Amino acid sequence: MAQTPKKVQGDNQEEAQKQGSPEQIRAFGAFIKLCRATWSLTSRVARSLPGEITFAQFAVLEALDTLGPMNQRTISRKILRSSASVNVVVDNLERRGLVKRTRSKIDRRNVEVSLTPTGHELMRDVLPVYVSTVQSEFNVLSEEEQEELGRLCRTLGLQDTVSDPG
């Protein structure tokens, strides 16, 4: 059974080498770099969002804008957030008149969340700024590097959906 690498402070590679196999160190180092890059990029992009919305609110609005009305459980799966945190975000968006909740006529237990006209208008204003900011951030990578990054992220992200052959 492989040992789990111990928590590494900073980028002290010499210390890290004492704490696991080369495979563990390589994987853990890549994981830390991926997390730091994600946090840094997300923070910079979130600061560019106009309209006084948080990144979590934008994620919910974008999912609804792209995919249409859905229940909160589906939203939470789409944006990779807990149902509880999505509930708080939807509450805040509803208070601002950006989304509405509607009980399903087919199954009264199901409550769908959808964008209001004001929510659609906000997305028309915010999405181009967001896309432009993301493009600007990714300009440090070549087209080929962006494609490779997308492929690698998809491979990592879909791991849990691949069945174990043995």
Q: Secondary-structure element sequence?
A: HHHEHHEEHH
Reading off the top of the CATH hierarchy, the class of the domain at 23-137 is best stated as Mainly Alpha
The total strand number stands at 3
Q: Which architecture of the domain at 23-137 would the CATH scheme give at its second level?
A: Orthogonal Bundle
Major pleated sheet: 3 strands, antiparallel
Radius of gyration: 20 Å
- Averaging pLDDT over every residue, what do you get? 86
Number of helices: 7
Global structural class: mainly alpha
Instruction: Look at the structure and name the CATH superfamily of the domain at 23-137.
Output: Winged helix-like DNA-binding domain superfamily/Winged helix DNA-binding domain
Helix content: 55-70%
Q: How does the overall form come out from the CA principal axes? A: globular
Short description:
This protein has 166 residues and is mainly alpha-helical.
Describe the protein:
The protein is mostly helical and 166 residues long. The protein has a domain at 23-137: Arc Repressor Mutant, subunit A, CATH 1.10.10. It is built from seven helices and three strands, in the order αααβααββαα. A hairpin with a 7-residue loop joins strand 2 and strand 3 (111-115).
